[in-house]
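[RESIDUES AND BACKBONE]
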Amino acid sequence: MPQQPDRPARLRIAITGVTGFVGSHAVRRLADRGHEIKVLVRDRSRLSKKFPGSATVVEGALDDRQALKKLANKSDVLVHIAGAIKAVDAAGFTKVNADGTRAIVEAAGQAGVKRFVHVSSLAAREPALSAYCASKAAAETVVADSAAGMDWVCIRPPAVYGPGDRATLPLVQQLSRRHALLTGLHGQRISLLHVDDLARGLVSASEGLVEPGKIYEADDGRDNGYTWQELAKLAGHTLGFTPRVHLLPGKVVGMAGLVGEMLARATGKAQVLTAGKARELYHPDWVIRGLRLDETGQWKPRIGFDEGFAGTLRWYRAHGWLRDS
């Protein structure tokens, strides 16, 4: 397999999910590589000020067949990043993550797209844990079954963090304090991945430098992941002190998750914390175990948690998301 070129051939790349955390980083990297970019957005006003001005914008959602057809038309590669991380119920996750993936795969196939890159999640490895996990596993099955006519790749990242991420802000906030109050288990191990490294991995997959027809897992290169205490120690290199970790009891978080589900059903508004999310938070092993993306030889992680935490904390403080304590 050839090495990644300094000046890649210009590709026509269609992307979903560019207003999200991962997508906003990936689209800028792909544009910087000189590719012709087309994106699907529900509302163009949500595009970042740093969004590539040369990109073509298609307004629509994953349930808009005409918009998907327009997005896929004359594209060489389709990178599917869009997905739901919260929903009112299981049907909501299925509609976006599984049915939405089926719709975009079908549009890509009908348009003659040659390469399909799907951003999944390590959660897909544990479909019995929650409706979210099940929907991500179902989406992978859709890609494997329906994208057979294309060079498809699925990439399963673990928890992704970095500048600009709202989802991992609470984690960084707690790890920046002398007493960190966290969810999880003693001895629980997790893999992590900095968003810049994931974006580079998506560039490699988009440019055809990853063997197709496989599901890859990617992390920051830390064998066997981290415990919460190890993360606190690494955070301490930046802080000048090591936070003391306090873990919330799983039963308490599980009860709060049940309340979240009842609230979602009563209001019709999705909640982040549900019973399923609580089960995810207290699953003992979120370390990547499958085929590693760095085994392809085309991509290697560059940012460990020590460096990644420091840069993310600086960004949060500079943008007023966290106070400088």
Residues 1-5 have pLDDT under 50 and may be disordered. The chain is about 40% helix and 15% strand.
